[in-house]
Each structure stands twice: as structure tokens, then as C-alpha cells.
Amino acid sequence: MTDNSYNEMFEPTGACRAHYDAYQRWLADTPEELLSRKRHEADLLFHRAGITFTVYGDESGTERLIPFDPLPRIIPAREWAMLEAGCRQRVQALNAFLDDIYHDQHILKEGLIPAEQVLANPQYQLAMQGVTLPHGIYSHISGVDLIRDGNGRYCVLEDNLRIPSGVSYMLENRRMMMRLFPELFTLNRIAPVDHYPNLLLETLRSSTPTDAPCVVVLSPGRYNSAYFEHAFLAQQMGVELVEGQDLFVSDGRVRMRTTAGPRVVDVIYRRVDEAFLDPLAFNPDSMLGVPGLLSVYREGGVVLANALGTGVADDKSIYPHVPAMIRFYLDEEPILDNVPTWQCRDPEQCRHVLDHLGELVVKETQGAGGYGMLIGPAASREQLEEFRRRVKANPAGYIAQPTMALSTCPTFVEAGIAPRHIDLRPYVLSSSQGVRLVPGGLTRVALQEGSLVVNSSQGGGTKDTWVLEDNPTSETSSC
Amino acid sequence: MQLAVQHCTRYRYEHAARSSIQYLRLQPRNGPGQRIDAWQLSLPGGSRPPIIEDGFGNLMQVLVLERAHREIAIEARGLVTLTDRFNGRRQDALDPRPFLRPTALTAPDGALARHHLGRQRDLAALCTLQQAILAAMPYTPGATEVWHSARDAWAIGSGVCQDHVHVMLGCARLMGLPARYVSGYLHSADDTHLASHAWAEIHLEGGWQLFDVTNGLTQPTHHVRLAIGMDYLDACPIRGIRRGGGAEVMAAGVRVQYAPTDQ
């Protein structure tokens, strides 16, 4: 699959792409042994800083380091401008869609999306019916997963509107690169990303009409795979990191227990899954949430970022409709393309999927993190038959897509520098001040040769992502 | 016909609980077939939390006790006039389609579904289904616990109204029919159903058709509606949690009588 993939650094002729020129000259002068030493140094530093994550389903339950690759992924300014506009457009449309389906449902009445597919979707949150949110923003923090096909064309693979994670790696990877290779940052004009925590805090503060709001980060606790990130972001923003037991509800407000007595909380950046947020409304066994939270939220007494019920918009069965949302709500043509998708809920499309199972990627509509997924060309006969059974038993639970090549980027592996498949997740912040991104995002890399699964839960690594600045005046734009 | 309703619930704890919070859905609404003439709630310490609406349009209140307590007593009482004898099929503004999805409490197992699913999706077929459910799991107070799912109750082979409704909802949704849980009160002459009652509503031909599985009814007789939801957890009159307190003893009693002037 590597053969027909788009190589980020080299033209098919073998010539280096212009935006990699300066880096390539540096790399040519740098012995591999130095890279090896630097990567080892990075591992030690990451370990010491406690930047680890837990892999679910790993019997030993041990914390693992997400492998850091010392070779950056580089994006030229013009390309980034297009990606930024495309992500912004997409997230605007998705927020408009969420506001619509929990209120007047114009898009369903127009028949642009089958109503039953939205309303009967388990991610459609009944508790959000009749709730009006400040500025109509549901997904304050969105992670848009982008890949590049064989021609280098960017496509959106999925929108993450629930609890997108990984931004701490974007920030830490940059710090690590600056520490390991400071000279690279004078050789290249690289757009900074370190203002992300400031932008995030601004986004959270402006999500409520309250002046000088109290913002907290709500984490499920230290056993969560992303606990490091929760602690990191709280510390970077200078706000409290809390768990469910630190908060309680009284007199229609959420309060935080502090040594100086209870304090009203206005905005909760919640990294707890919505099913666990209020045991009196959702999963009754949850120990991670705040009993009574939903009653306060519905009355506007607290802002949750992200809102409840965003999952219906990033559900894989709704994904094929995002281009229609962009046209309907924004009256614009989509800047970023979708990956072609077959919906198994449609008998004809399902037949096509079952006939071509060996060529396709099949995903559970509600799966995430690379779990519950079949990559046809890499699957064994048993795996194919297993998925055939599952799709037949519950067609509406699956979609299929062509096996996308995914672009490759030179990566430092055991055998030296070799191409490995990558994707890109920019983080998109929505607030009353507009939709904003820091340049770049998180580049994930599939470290095994030929592998297309970049998820850290499946053994993927990460790279620093550079957006090159063309001219000194370009800045993070907002609209 | 006017009914006088009195619903008392009392929780006693082994030790003092440090704090507790309850979602109360104990406030019936005016609607087709019922008019609330008077209604009041007595809560601990005379507390009067504001009445808010949940996502289903139910009225609810949040009772918070932030001091040590060994007991919570909640009493709801009021007068309800059952206005007209409609044919058991209600119209309302809620979109039926969200009620198509299964929940953890209602999802039936395959054997149950195969056993009961008729090919027809009409009133007659659903009446047969409701009779079959009652025959397969006769009304037996104490046979199941409140947290038991449709599958659990089906396996036990008996149950109370909550279990009957969950099984009925699970089957209806599997048949592609929107179905919802209704909690409420029922006046019955023999006084056998002492706790609050529950029945199902299934969306048929543009309206919500009542199925009182436990009593084998498709016409409301003396049914007072309290709340609706996907299952028991959404619609139950009291759902709470507490910190501390140890073991709990709960006692509940419901009396639904003809109002004095109406006898």
C-alpha cells in the first residue's frame, strides 16, 4: 500500500518537496546515531514527565509511552490556510446541525437527512430537547481527523465532537522538538502552537454569559487513559482539575468543595463521557459524575464543554451527510472532501459491502479509537467471516469505506528512516469569538510497516507538526 | 370522575446520611384525559424546590439535603379529574422516533423476541402479545428488584408492572414501533397494586396507544399519568443518591380513591 501512497516529503521523481528543503539539508548533515540518541533522550524525558496513557484491553493494564518520532511532519502555509478554512467551515456546520436537530429540525423537515437516522440514533440525546445553549455552541472543542489520498488530496475521515483527546501531545511534541533540535527552529519559520491553552481558556470563559466565570476541568480520575492530558490542560490554563466527588449540586448550581468553602462553578470542561455525567439521569451506577448535574445544565446554571448530545453529529452513519449540512446551513461548497462511505443500513449498499469485504474498511457506526474495525486487505479469512456475520446481523451498525492509502512521512524506525502512514488531527475551538485553530495539530503515525492504524490505542506514535509561515504577518486568524 | 391521590414514600437509613439528592417526578400535568385540580408535595424541612421540565416534558423537582439525616419522607397528594373517556390513544407534540431505540432495561433477549414477535403490528397483535407476556410472567410482588431488566424478569418468570412494561417496550421497539414507559397511579377496586403503577404506550396510527400489561387493558379506566420516558429510570417518581447512611429501608404507599364529592 505504501507504493501508491502520497509521500509528504518526496515527489514521485525522488526530488524533495520545496517545503521540506531546509529540513532535508539538515537531515543529510545529521548522523542517524544522533537521531537515535535524541529519540532515546525524548523517551526518558517523556517518561520522567509522566506523559503516558493506558491501553484498554491490555491485560497488564500498564501505562505506556506513546512513541515519539523525531522527524516532523511539515505543512506549507498555503495548504494550512485551506485546511484551516475547511475545518472551520465543517465545525460551524456541525454546530448548526446540532442546534437545529435539538430545536426546529429544519434539516429533517427538508428531508436532507432521514429523520429516523438522527432521532432513533442512540447518540441523539433526549435530555437536550428544549435546551438552548449560549451562542448555540455544542462542540466547543472538536478534533477533525484528516488523511491524504494517493493524490495528496486531504479528506476528512471523521469528526470528533465528544471528547477529542491528544492535544497535550501536540504541545509536548513541540516542546520536545525545541529542546532536542533548537537549531531547526532557526532554520525554518515554524508557526507556534504554545498559545493553545490560552485559546482554550478563552473559549471556555466566553462559553458562558457570566463575568469572570469559574472554569474547571472534570476528569474521570487517574485510571483514565487520558488523565495526564486532563491534569496538563488544567495546569496550563491555571484552573482546577476536579473529579465528580469534588462537585455537588445545590440550589440549582454546581459547587466545588474547596478549603475556603463551596464555590460556584460556571463552566465544566468535562472529560467524562456523557453517560457517566449524572447518575440520576444516565448510567445509575456511575461514580464519576455529579448527581443532579443535568437539572442544573438544562436550566442554564452551568456550561458543559462539550455539550451533551454531540455524538449524534460525529456518528459514522451521520458523517456522509456533513457536506449536505455545509450547503444547507452555510450555503457554501465544502472545502474538505469526505471519504466515500457505504451505509450498510441500505440493503443495496450493504450487498456491495459484503461483496467487496476484502477491499474495504468496515467500521462500527458508534466505534471510536480504532476498536471494532475491519481492514479488509489486511484481514484473515476468519476475521472477514466474523465481520460478515456481524454486518449481516446488524447492518445499521456498520459503514464501509474504500481502503484509503494514507500519505506517508519519513519516520525513524529500527531499520533507519523509512516511510510510515500518518494522519492529522487539528483541534478546532468554537466560541462567541469565532472558530479558531492553532496551526497544525496532532500527527499520528502507524509505526509498523504498511499499517494504516494510527490510533495510539493500537500502537501508533506521534510527530511534531510544523506549519511553515510564508510571511511574517500571517497569524492565527479568527472569524 | 375525580380521584383523590395520596402517595407517601419514606426512606430510613441505618446511620445518618451526610447528604442526598433526589430527582422527583411527582407532579402530574394537565393533558388529554386528565386535569389536575389540586396537587401538593410535602418535602423534608418544608423545602419547595422550583418545578422544572426534563427532556420528555415531565415536570420535576430536585430535592437536595446537605445536612445529616436518617430519614426522608415525601408525600404527594392531590385531586385529579379524568375528563373524557378517549379511546386510549393520545396525541402529543413529542416526536415518536426517539422511542424506537432499545435501552439497557428494555432490550429483550433473542429467545424472548422470537417467542413473541408476531408478524402483525396492529392493535390485535399487540393485545395478544400483552396477554402472552402476562401469562409468561404473572404479577408477583417481590419477585423482582427495581434494577432488574426485561431480560432478568423474563428469566425469573414473574414480575411487577415495571417488568411487564419493560418486556412490552422491548418487543414493540424490536418490531419497529416507538414505545414509551408511563408511570402513574391507578385506582382499582381490590387495592392489590399498592405501589405506584406503570404501563406502556405504543405509537400506532399517529397516536400513543395505552397498554396496561399487568391489568390486560388497552383502554384507560382510572389511570393518572405522572411521567413518561424510555424506561423506568426516566419516568420513576423518585430517583436519588446519597452519601453515607448504610442500609436503607423504603416504604411506599399509594391510595387512589374516588374524591368525596364524586362517590
Features:
heterodimer; A: 479 residues; alpha+beta; Rossmann fold; Dna Ligase, domain 1; five-stranded mixed β-sheet; 23 strands; 29% helix; disordered C terminus; B: 263 residues; Immunoglobulin-like; C8orf32 fold; five-stranded antiparallel β-sheet; 5 helices; 12 strands; 40% strand; globular
Care to give the gist of this entry?
Chain B: Residues 153-215 form the Transglutaminase-like domain. The complex is a heterodimer of chains A (479) and B (263). Chain A has helices spanning 21-28, 32-49, 77-101, 106-109, 115-119, 167-180, 184-187, 196-205, 227-237, 293-298, 311-314, 322-330, 347-355, 381-393, and strands at 53-54, 63-64, 68-75, 141-148, 154-160, 215-218, 240-242, 247-250, 253-256, 263-265, 267-270, 303-305, 337-338, 342-343, 360-364, 373-375, 398-402, 408-413, 416-425, 427-431, 434-437, 442-445, 461-467.
Can you characterise this structure?
With 479 residues, chain A is of the alpha+beta class. Among the domains of chain A are: 214-265 and 267-301, Rossmann fold (3-Layer(aba) Sandwich), CATH 3.40.50; 340-403, Dna Ligase, domain 1 (2-Layer Sandwich), CATH 3.30.1490. Chain A has 14 helices and 23 strands. Chain A has helices at 21-28, 32-49, 77-101, 106-109, 115-119, 167-180, 184-187, 196-205, 227-237, 293-298, 311-314, 322-330, 347-355, 381-393; strands at 53-54, 63-64, 68-75, 141-148, 154-160, 215-218, 240-242, 247-250, 253-256, 263-265, 267-270, 303-305, 337-338, 342-343, 360-364, 373-375, 398-402, 408-413, 416-425, 427-431, 434-437, 442-445, 461-467. In chain A, strands 3-23-22-19-18 form a five-stranded mixed beta sheet. In chain A, strands 13-5-4-20-21 form a five-stranded mixed beta sheet, sandwiched between helices. In chain A, helix 3 packs across helix 12 (322-330). Residues 57-61 and 472-479 of chain A have low confidence and may be disordered. Chain B folds into two domains: 2-83 and 237-262, Immunoglobulin-like; 89-235, C8orf32 fold. In chain B, the strands form two sheets. In chain B, strands 1, 2, 3, 4, 5, 11 and 12 form a seven-stranded antiparallel beta sheet that branches. Chain B has a five-stranded antiparallel beta sheet with strand order 6-9-8-7-10. Chain B is globular, with a radius of gyration of 18 Å. Chain B is 17% helix and 40% strand. Chain B is of the alpha+beta class. Chain B has helices at residues 110-116, 123-136, 150-156, 161-174, 232-235; strands spanning 2-27, 34-42, 52-53, 59-65, 69-82, 89-90, 179-186, 197-204, 207-211, 223-229, 238-244, 248-258. The A-B interface holds A 115-116, 119-122, 124-131, 248-252, 279-281, 284, 291-292, 295, 298-299 and B 19, 21-23, 50, 52-57, 60, 62, 64, 66, 95, 97-98, 100-101, 147, 230, 233, 239-241. Chain A: Residues 72-446 form the Circularly permuted ATP-grasp type domain. Chain A: It comes from Kushneria sinocarnis. Chain A: Residues 455-479 are annotated as: Disordered. Chain A: This is Putative circularly permuted ATP-grasp superfamily protein. Chain A: Pfam families: CP_ATPgrasp_2. Chain B: One of its GO terms (molecular function) is peptidase activity.
